[in-house]
Amino acid sequence: MDSAANATSPRGFLLQGFFEFPHLRPALFLLLLAVHLTTLSGNLLILVAVASVPSRPPMLLFLCQLSVIELCYTLVVVPRSLADLSMPGTARGSPISFLGCAVQMQMFVALGGAECFLLAAMAYDRYVAICHPLRYAAVVTPGLCARLALACCVGGLAVSLGLTAAVFHLPFCGSRLLVHFFCDITALLHLACTRSYAEELPLLGACLVLLLLPSSLILASYGAIASALRRLRCAGGRRKAASTCTSHLVVTFLHYGCATFMYVRPKSTYSPRLDRTLALVYTNVTPLLYPLIYSLRNREITSAIFRVLGRLRPAQARGHARAE
């Protein structure tokens, strides 16, 4: 057994990943690679589509920022996971340095936190658009959108730095093996030597800031929206207004549902292999669903994507003609 000093030395940790399933690793590699490339393509397509729109409504700017966050979110975790899956042999795990593990966890939490705050900003945008449509252009200005976007990033970064410092100041003794494919908070807390609830307080504090505060703002916004929709006499107007919120609500439930289930629970209920499987879903499947949800539900995004694809086809045809 390693001592606490050895465990926190520059040797760092071992990421077990899926090394105990050698026969499944090739299929899992191909599946994750296909999902990762599709996620990157979908989010990049949304970015290009938004950039091609001459006048961009605030909601499109928020969608653009969401796509950037999702791109970075998957790049923090998935490429290393793919590299580990492609490694031959039956090694016990893939080594990661102490600093590398801390940086990966910090970036993962920062991006997830920024998305929590961004979803609250998008809920406020929908609230103003539905409850105060005549004042929308005057309230939700490009300057306000830029300030909200910056606040989301700064808020996620601040919380992630504090949480990372708290977690990596804990003593890690015994095994250095993380039963996970990236440096997740719950996996690291599971290796901590302490057995009291004190080490969970930073995580609970981060959850209060990243989950409870934005979700309270989202609930307040949609409470006001629901009240405004009940006062509408036109059924068509209610359906149109509600449809603009559907995609945001679906993404919000997915993001907050996964985060709440994974992190808002006591350490005693932690199951390494179950959490690793669940993390595989929320780091790969949910980022894939987000661009699909928004591209299918948002008419402006859909129209912009078709315009971009329409421009690409003639360009490809001209390229083939030149080649011939």
UniProtKB/TrEMBL annotation:
Chief place where the protein resides: membrane
Coiled-coil region list: none
Record SUPFAM superfamilies: Family A G protein-coupled receptor-like
InterPro entries per the UniProt record, alphabetical: GPCR_Rhodpsn, GPCR_Rhodpsn_7TM, Olfact_rcpt
Keyword entries, A-Z: Cell membrane, G-protein coupled receptor, Glycoprotein, Membrane, Olfaction, Receptor, Sensory transduction, Transducer, Transmembrane, Transmembrane helix
Membrane topology: Multi-pass membrane protein
One term under GO cellular component: plasma membrane
Gene Ontology molecular-function annotations: G protein-coupled receptor activity; olfactory receptor activity
Positions of transmembrane segments: 28-53, 59-78, 98-124, 144-170, 203-229, 241-264, 276-296
Segments forming domain G-protein coupled receptors family 1 profile: 42-294
PROSITE patterns registered for this protein in UniProt: G_PROTEIN_RECEP_F1_1, G_PROTEIN_RECEP_F1_2
Subcellular location: Cell membrane
Pfam family, one: 7tm_4
Keyword match Ligase: no
Family as reported in the entry's similarity comment: Belongs to the G-protein coupled receptor 1 family.
This protein's name: Olfactory receptor
Lineage, broadest ranks: Eukaryota, Metazoa, Chordata, Craniata, Vertebrata
